[in-house]
Amino acid sequence: MSFLATGKVNYPARIDRAELLVHRYSFAQQILGFYRHIAQLQYKFYEQLPKRWGKRAIAPAHGDLRSELNLEVLREAFGKFLSLVESESPGPLSAHSRQLRLRGETEWDSVLADFWKTGLLESASAEPLTEFLARAFLQPYAEFLTGSLLPPVLPMTVCRCPLCNSLPLLGVLRPEGDGGKRFLVCSLCSQEWEFRRILCAHCGEEQEQKLPVYVAEQFPHVRVECCETCKHFLRTIDLTKDGNAVPLVDDLAAIPLSLWAEENGYARIQGNLLGT
Question: H or E element: which one contains 268?
């Protein structure tokens, strides 16, 4: 099995794709507009990280992404992030950001450390707004760290990220030969690892008749891969049908597909940043 090391994260491509999809999907304009704002904040933080980090080693101990959290690098930037989210976000999120900002650095450290330790290891969250703020802020940090790690050797198919043990966010079909090779995308560090085509990414079901795939005419390059055994679904972006798609962004826009899946009794393995 192979692991796809994506190198430097292309935030401009994410931002540009969100702008394009705003004009394509009118129902997703608000979501994508807000995402563009968050992605711009993430991009600024991601670009600053090498300078903030200094000369100390970047690679986490033993290749475990969650083994440590550099709060010295994060603390000041998180305060600025909260201020910007407070000024540019919808009412409830703005108010929550302000409350957290006013609680000070001790509370910030606790929120970030707790998420780094347990966030995205399960699908549910007791405090969704706090999780959103920690997840949005720490995603570029996690992506930065993965750039310092060697791709792991995967002797078998795994359902969780080999670098940070997070649940998969979505699947990607990348062109190979006359077909496509399937990868899973991590919900925290955005890295991809190869995954078998006929296999549930949640429970490991491998009987093809129990793994139906649905595609809507409105989103011909987005697959809803369901499992009748565990009743979970994975959304997969098919790059063999649209090579210009940016998986993290196209996933955000596919709101009707999540509504359809939920109405038909399927739960997503792990939700995306904005819960669409």
Answer: strand 267-268
